[in-house]
Amino acid sequence: MEDFVTFKSFDSDKIESQIERGMETLIEKAVEPIVPKALPKEIELTLNARLGDEYTAYYFYRNAANWCKGVNFPKAAAFFEKEAAGELEHAQAIQDYLTQWNLYPDIPAVETGRAFLGLVDLINQAYELEWNLLQKYSDDQKEIFRDHPATFNFIQGYVDIQVGEVAEYSDYLNALQLIDTRSKLDILMFEDKYFG
Ligand code: FEO
Question: What Å distances lie between residue 166 and 52, 123, 163, CA to CA?
């Protein structure tokens, strides 16, 4: 049966010591830092994989700029230099997001080499790279949108970037349909007009 505190049974010392113990517990809790939350493991793995894709894109455009310099397409070289710098920023932002969520980025080893048979081949490869990355980020959104809306929103930024990249290379491919891509002069004029 439950004890009732009556005037007779009221024990002020006991109550005081209970209050003291309660205060001690509160003080202990107040100096105990909360361990902040991290992203779910699957999202961490996905973002690390995309980090590898962004570095792959960086090396792709570095090779593209080097190739363009080597064959003397200076305007295209300057364009691909900027593309490479942009990819580094994309990679950086993923790493910042991971560290913001208390995780250490696990930078994957990626393919660093790339060969090109000409400017058309280079643009074809760039289009495929950007298109494939758009598919990956879009698939990631489908996987994530219920479980982690914050990361869904983060990835939305990358989908937007990819849509812009795909549109840009689509424009180049459409422009290439208008010229004789077997003519060196046409390719020179293309480079001058579209990368100038
Ligand atoms: Fe960062 Fe061009 O993908």
Answer: 19, 11, 5
Contact 143, 43 (CB under 8 A): no
CA–centroid distance, 193 to ligand 1, in Å, is 23
Residue 16: pLDDT over 90: no
Query: Ligand 1: does its nearest atom lie under 6 Å from the Cβ of 130?
Result: yes
pLDDT in tens, 144-165: 989 999 999 999 999 999 999 9
Report residue 144 as tokens.
């994530």
pLDDT confidence of residue 2: 54
What is the reported pLDDT for 3? 55
CA 54 to centroid of ligand 1, rounded, Å: 6
**Burial class of residue 133 in the structure, from the number of CB atoms within 10 Å of its CB (0-12 exposed, 13-18 middle, 19+ buried):** buried
The 3-state secondary structure of 14-49 reads HHHHHHHHHHHHHHHHHCCCCCCCCCCHHHHHHHHH
Token pair 């439950």 is at which residue? 2
In order of 32, 105, 147, 174, the CA distances from 36 in angstroms are 12, 17, 18, 50
Rounded to whole angstroms, the Cα distance separating 110 from 54 reads 10
Amino acid at 41: K
The pTM score is: 0.87
Structural domains in the chain, sorted by start: 41-195 (1.20.1260.10)
Joined together, the tokens standing for residue 46 give: 């996905």
